[in-house]
Fold this protein.
Amino acid sequence: MYPNSILILFSNLRGGIGKTSLAFNLSFLANNALIVDTCPQGNLSYFFNKDYQLSPSLSVNDILRPYFLPGFGFATNTSQYIAETNKFFEGKNNYFIKSSNELYILPSQMANALVQARTIMGSAQEEMIDKMLYSLKSEIQKEKQIINADKCLIDTSPFFSGATHLAWHATDALIIPVRTDQQSINSLRLLLDILTNPNSEFRRTPTSDNHTPKIQMIVLTHCGWSTVAGARNIPNQQTKMFLKEIYNLIARQISLFTTSNPANHIVMLDDFLGSGRMSTAQSKPILCMNSGETMYINRVKTSVNESVYKIQNELKFIHNSIW
């Protein structure tokens, strides 16, 4: 466990694996938490506030801009109280900093600013680069103090550059959702390579302390289960195949993880199915759902079945494991 840590849910070059859904549901289980949406698509921000784009509050891009573009002032009190715009969060002291589509151009702004920093001689260069790469961490720490939060979750985009790069430097530990398909396994390999390869974008521009986040958990999503009579909670053959491959990947890169046992870092999560579609449509955490609920989504009747209770227990297990 990482008490009071900043946790990031991340998938590199692979979308549609349940990353934002996982971030949304874990944010509901947390309390006294700051949730930061660094994905320019803004799906997590939408779950918290359907009108987030019209909200006068400042975005992640607003708090990062002064670090990379001269002439902009630093922001304060940037987070929004989630319960004001999502009734399911009533009673929780949770806040979020919204996304912005301007984050799409942040990578080029960062690249230009880092090039300029490298023209400075001496220790001032190192200080300037540190200030930029730790910019998100600095702003999160300030905002946590203002709202008295002791936890933080960061949702990121399915590409490395820009705010995701800064999130890696902000975090204490990574949570990596991986879907049960080969493309997701390939993206996990790429992520591990970015963390370790000295020629990767992350390693080429190090901080003064050479910070590299540790991986706390890999969540294998959309798992399938055996239908053999008498089998209970036993993965099917396809899921077993991916579990073995992930285990071997972890074993080969165990120094990147928070413990020395690969088995400590793999968690299996069911396919959310109808529960997930209804959760997305209603911005309703799965923890608030019950079997038998129905609604029409795109004129198709969608239902919550008994599997929702198993999913709820899996989410609670993940929550209890990370805080």
In short: The radius of gyration is 20 Å. Residues 237-252 form the longest helix (16 residues).
